[in-house]
Every structure is written in C-alpha cells, then in structure tokens.
C-alpha cells in the first residue's frame, strides 16, 4: 500500500506545540501564529478524554495549561466549553479553547500545513493503544491529499499496533537519551519506524551514522539554539523540532 501523506525529504523546521513562545502551547492560536510566520510543520500531542474524544494536550493532567485541574482521562467532551487553555499564558489568550484532534484536522485542511502528531500512552497517559488508535485514525482519514503527517510516540507497542492497523502512515519512534543505551535499533525497526526522534544530547552526533546505516531518517527535539540546529542539519538530521520555528526557518534553505 502506498504511504498516505508521506513526508517529503529535505530539512524540516517543526514548531514544537505550535509557536509556544508566543502563544499557549498546543492551541489553535499557537498553530495560527506558526502558519502566519511561514512555518510549514507543526508538532502536537494527542491524548484522550474519558469518552474517547482525542484532544491536544501534553500533560496527563489539566493543571499546568488550563484554568482547571485533574486528569485528562476524568473529563468528557461536555467539559470542553468551560476549559480555558489560554489564560495561564497571557490574559490576551483568555478563553482559548482546549482543541480537539478534529479541530486540528480542520485547521490543517484549511492551511495546508503538515504535522507531527505525538500519541500519548503508557506512563504519560491513561490512554491505551487500542483506544488511541480507534480514536485517531478516523480523524487522520479526513486530511486533504498532500498534507504530510508523521505519527510519533514514546510507546513502541502503540506505534507497532498503529503501524499494523494503518501501514500507510509514517511512524517516528521517540527516544530519550537513556533509551538509546538499550536496543533502540530493534525497537525502532520493530514498530515500523521510518524516523527516529531522539532528544538532543551531547552524544547524538555519534548516533547519526548508525541511524543512516539502519535506514532511518532523523528528527531531533527540542533544539532552541540556532548554532546547534545548524550543526545538526549539517550532520544530516532532517527535522529540527523547536520552540523557535519562526526564527529557524532560514536554516532549512541554507
């Protein structure tokens, strides 16, 4: 089966949770700012409400980035109108809604932006892989042709199940430095990954030749120093996931 929404080759500057320095993270406001500044790629996090509605939120609780508290998994879509995801960042964003995955898909279809969708599961979420896959696939299926998508997660079991259910989507395996001391190659191949997305760390350059040998494309998070981003791109890293995407855009064409 041909891959759907296959990411093109070449450098990518990806806005980590949108332009999260200038607007509340993982909101349509942050995505809209990225779009207006010419950014072509977003990164966002998907978790599930109690009723299975996929929403965009990094944390397992609502405490840090909304006007309310408690686990995401304790709320339903009926609670969404009362949740303010903007005031914590600035009064200028008061009333900014907690977005659903459906609203993100509508936004991508309107703007033509591309997106790295990180699926939460395991220690970072109460969502189980089967429920996450069942909730996200119908939404991804609504994307217009030509929009490029990467599906990522720290949970290799989730990625393997997602790849089995929908092999047409491109998979990225996320890694923290401690994970790279283990059999990361087997993990990445086992979940059908095209990309590996390691966290930036000092030993990363020595990883890149191994990744290339194994046939993986590489994206690195979260890189906020321009000199480091330039260095990594020069070493063959394809994607830079950053909080400063608007500032880093020229790096993609150097």
UniProtKB/TrEMBL annotation:
Pfam families: GDPD. Residues 11-252 form the GP-PDE domain. InterPro entries: GP_PDE_dom (IPR030395), PLC-like_Pdiesterase_TIM-brl (IPR017946). One of its GO terms (biological process) is lipid metabolic process. GO terms for molecular function: phosphoric diester hydrolase activity. It comes from the Bacteria. This is Glycerophosphoryl diester phosphodiesterase. It comes from Ancrocorticia populi. The lineage of its organism: Bacteria, Bacillati, Actinomycetota, Actinomycetes, Actinomycetales.
């Amino acid at each position: 089966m041909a891959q759907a929404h296959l990411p093109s080759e070449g450098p990518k500057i990806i806005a980590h949770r949108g332009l999260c320095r200038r607007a509340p993270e993982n909101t349509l406001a942050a995505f809209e700012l990225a779009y207006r500044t010419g950014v072509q790629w977003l990164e966002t996090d998907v978790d599930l409400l109690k009723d299975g509605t996929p929403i965009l939120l990094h944390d397992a609780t609502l405490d840090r980035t909304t006007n309310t508290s408690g686990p995401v998994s304790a709320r339903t879509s009926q609670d969404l109108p009362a949740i303010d995801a903007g005031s914590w960042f600035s009064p200028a964003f008061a009333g900014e809604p907690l977005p659903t995955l459906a609203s993100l898909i509508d936004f991508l279809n309107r703007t033509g932006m591309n997106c790295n969708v990180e699926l939460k599961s395991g220690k970072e979420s109460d969502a189980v892989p089967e429920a996450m896959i069942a909730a996200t696939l119908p939404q991804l299926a609504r994307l217009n042709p030509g929009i490029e998508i990467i599906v990522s997660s720290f949970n290799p079991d989730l990625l393997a199940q997602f790849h089995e259910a929908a092999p047409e989507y491109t998979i990225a395996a996320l890694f923290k430095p401690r994970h790279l001391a283990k059999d990361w190659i087997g993990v990445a191949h086992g979940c059908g990954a095209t990309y590996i997305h390691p966290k930036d760390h000092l030993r990363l350059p020595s990883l890149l030749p191994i990744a290339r040998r194994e046939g993986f494309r590489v994206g690195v998070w979260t890189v906020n120093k321009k000199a480091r981003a330039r260095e990594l791109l020069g070493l063959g890293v394809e994607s830079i996931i950053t909080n400063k995407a608007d500032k880093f855009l020229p790096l993609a064409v150097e």
